[in-house]
Design a protein that fits this description.
Length: about 100
């Protein structure tokens, strides 16, 4: 997992960790269902994920989302998003104060 430190340091650690936890909780079902969705829904889901990932400075998943948007037929990008999301979820759980 790669975090853009300039973005992350705009927030206190407590606020950043809370936002990261919210990102994980609000998107886990979307990430799991990506390949099962139709292309229009998948595009909207990727766009939503990208906004949150960029706001939190999550470089690697943002990169995978860019690849998935530019090459929607290559489902390897979706799998990479899922794997990276799992790493983000684990990091969030480890750093969560509640």
């Amino acid at each position: 997992m790669e975090i853009d430190e300039k973005i992350a340091h705009q927030y206190s650690p407590a606020v950043y960790n809370k936002a990261l936890k919210m990102f994980v909780e609000s998107n886990k079902n979307l990430v799991q269902g990506l390949q099962a969705n139709n292309e229009d829904h998948e595009f909207k889901t990727l766009h939503k994920l990208k906004g949150g990932a960029n706001m939190l400075g999550l470089k690697k998943i943002s990169s995978y989302i860019d690849l998935a948007e530019s090459d929607p037929l290559n489902k390897e990008h979706i799998e990479a998003i899922r794997e990276e999301f799992q790493q983000i979820a684990a990091f969030s759980a480890q750093n969560s104060s509640s």
